[in-house]
Amino acid sequence: MKKRVAVISLGCPKNWVDTETIVGLLKATGEVTFVSDLKEADVILVNTCGFIQPAKEESIDEILNAIEEKKENPEKKVVVAGCLYERYKEELKKELPEVDAFIGVNELLESVERILNRKVAFRKPYLLREILTPNHLAYLKISEGCSNACTYCAIPLIRGPLRSRPIDEVLDEAKRLADLGVKELYVIAQDTTAYLYDRREREGLLKLLKELEKIKGIEWIRLMYTYPSHITDDLIDYMASSEKLVKYIDVPLQHVNDKVLSSMGRKYTRRQAEELIEKLRKRVPGIAIRTTFIVGFPTEGEREFEELHSFLKDYEFDWAGFFKYSREDGTVAYRLGDLPEEVKKSRLELLEETQFWIYEKRNRELIGKEVQLIVDSSTSELPGYSEARSYRNAYEIDGIVYLKGHFRPGRFVRAKVTELASNVDLIAEPVK
């Protein structure tokens, strides 16, 4: 009888790929079936995040919830995987004796043994990945770890230094994704622009992108998690001329005050960040820029915060995420102390409010324009409409476009923007 497995995946898209890999390995054995109801499961797998405090708390809550289900049925098996375990191995083993097995971030190949108690050998396990996103889009993780040494970041403590995957392996996986019907590929890593730096290649990402563009079936390639000072002129020029690399870039700036950037261990200045933004907008007309900022870093005083706030208003980013600084044990910045929670909260709210109105301004500029959309799903939000996205919108993190009519997911539709659905979302009609 097949074991019924329920899977809970937390954290970032990099962790999501790990979940898809574990699910694919389990599925390849032919011995499991997957269920969504924890009560029906023989095994509950929780793939955790351990990056910052709120993520750790969410992970613990999900583990405790799974343990409660096990109390109802002691035959159930609870398995904990991912970053939280990798970061706090001994503590979790001691505090959670009810957990039957643990899987570290570098132990994905052992997942079948830990879950099903049997050994397996797969020649190319990455080709067995089970895509859990909509069929027309997928993440392509090109490296593990990070060597940028940002003082606030726990990723190197969890996943170690940069380790790029061999380019042939990455391309094999991308071709398989295309064969499965994937049309939009998200290139991800802790720092995608550092791809092959550990193998002494400075244009490794550009080399990879040029090969990905040749893969039949892939229509859009989206570049995520780039590092400002690693974005080269050649990469910018390629984005401007490429038919498949969409004119969208995710470039986390984290801050703009030079003192704060220095204490964060970021290897650029405000002026260099400004030059990069101006260069991107000049050489890639219409580019959509997503960024993120950390609010309330220990060296951020009122003056430094106001500089960040003014910068946000001046540059009007298409998309921006804001995070309260989380003081993480083991990081270099931990010894800098922390700001009061109410200070961080009020600063965060002010930035979010400012960005909210920037969204409306940027989106109003799109009314009356034609855009190419990719359809994601039907929607209950607006009857008679489908959920779609333009090149300006990354899946699940940016706004959406409500497209009039019903279209199958993965279809590309030319449409005209007619009005705002909200500050971040648009409404469009197909162009006949």
From TrEMBL:
A Pfam family assignment: UPF0004
Give the MTTase N-terminal domain ranges: 3-121
Look up the record and report any one GO term of the cellular component aspect: cytosol
GO molecular-function terms, A-Z: 4 iron, 4 sulfur cluster binding; aspartic acid methylthiotransferase activity; metal ion binding; protein methylthiotransferase activity
Keyword field: 4Fe-4S, Cytoplasm, Iron, Iron-sulfur, Metal-binding, Ribonucleoprotein, Ribosomal protein, S-adenosyl-L-methionine, Transferase
Q: Can you quote the record's cofactor note?
A: Binds 2 [4Fe-4S] clusters. One cluster is coordinated with 3 cysteines and an exchangeable S-adenosyl-L-methionine.
Q: Which GO terms describe its biological process?
A: tRNA modification
Q: Which reaction does it catalyse?
A: L-aspartate(89)-[ribosomal protein uS12]-hydrogen + (sulfur carrier)-SH + AH2 + 2 S-adenosyl-L-methionine = 3-methylsulfanyl-L-aspartate(89)-[ribosomal protein uS12]-hydrogen + (sulfur carrier)-H + 5'-deoxyadenosine + L-methionine + A + S-adenosyl-L-homocysteine + 2 H(+)
Q: Which PROSITE patterns match?
A: MTTASE_N, MTTASE_RADICAL, RADICAL_SAM, TRAM
Q: Per UniProt, where does [4Fe-4S] cluster 1 bind?
A: 12, 49, 83
Its Enzyme Commission number(s) read: 2.8.4.4
Q: Which cofactor does it need?
A: [4Fe-4S] cluster
Provide the Radical SAM core domain boundaries: 132-361
- Which family is this sequence assigned to? Belongs to the methylthiotransferase family. RimO subfamily.
Q: HAMAP family recorded for this chain?
A: MTTase_RimO
In UniProt terms, what function does this protein have? Answer: Catalyzes the methylthiolation of an aspartic acid residue of ribosomal protein uS12.
Q: What is this protein called?
A: Ribosomal protein uS12 methylthiotransferase RimO
